[in-house]
Amino acid sequence: MTRIRQDTGYKMRAWRLEGAASDAALIQDAVAKIVTGIGVEDFSHQVLQQVNRVMPVGCWSVYRVGGSQPRMFLSSTYQRKDTTADSWRAYLSGPHLADKSFILDSTGITSPAITHLTAEEIPTPLHRDKVYRQFDMSERLSVVEAESQSEIFALNFYRYNDQRLYSDHELAAFEALAPALLAAVRRHLALSQQSHLTNAMSVDAVRLIFQARRPDLTERELDVVARTVLGMSYEGIATDLGLKLPTVKTYRNRAFDRLDIHFRNELVRYYLLLASAPK
């Protein structure tokens, strides 16, 4: 196994995510069971259970940090009181503003990568005290992927002070597990968002949001954007509305011009902003 490590000024260890082979049969079985849980409600608990077959972990969390709106997507704790939500709130109470524990620039390691540091190696005292010491966490092992120059998407696996530190063998096993784990989490989050959009919204509900917030859209533009948000194909929209396909695309283009967007995924993000804005 080739492992590329480089220590930063505050001793965080980082190396490229290569998927090295270690305990192959066990890891393959754990991955298979994680994959079967994609899209189900207790996916977070299933992941932690399977990771604990490979190596002991106290809790885990999945979040995006570094931008203006940090967000935690998943978390759970293994066979102890779950304090992950409390520790996230503690993190957002100030430590996130100066968090340098995910900086990869100085390591020369490209994303995605694995990072590893102990509580005492957390570079800012506020972060160390309010999160790690307050919640008795001793160590963090992460799969880190840069989403922009400022934002980091991270899968984090923590140990508590009553657990021993990660061994080299366990780090090797985690390296083998990490690529599939990152892919499974990404897929689960994508499916969860799609399911939320499909189940929680109807054409009428989406249309009403746009109608209230963007009165400049015409009736037909509202018909088209509402169905586009819900994932209907343009052919399907044409059939649903009794229009020709070129006509549907004309309404789409006019609506996109008014909204100053260019792609379907931008329309979905725009709708979510409108739907979550104070009334």
UniProtKB/TrEMBL annotation:
UniProt cross-references to InterPro entries, sorted A to Z: Sig_transdc_resp-reg_C-effctor (IPR016032), Tscrpt_reg_LuxR_C (IPR000792), WH-like_DNA-bd_sf (IPR036388)
Pfam families in UniProt: GerE (PF00196)
Xref: SMART domains: HTH_LUXR
PROSITE patterns assigned: HTH_LUXR_1, HTH_LUXR_2
Superkingdom assignment: Bacteria
Residue intervals of the HTH luxR-type domain: 210-275
UniProt GO BP: regulation of DNA-templated transcription
Keyword Transcription: yes
Keyword Cytoplasm: no
Transmembrane segments: none
Keywords: DNA-binding, Transcription, Transcription regulation
Entries under SUPFAM superfamilies matching the protein: C-terminal effector domain of the bipartite response regulators (SSF46894)
GO molecular function, one term: DNA binding
Protein name (database record): HTH luxR-type domain-containing protein
Organism: Neopusillimonas maritima
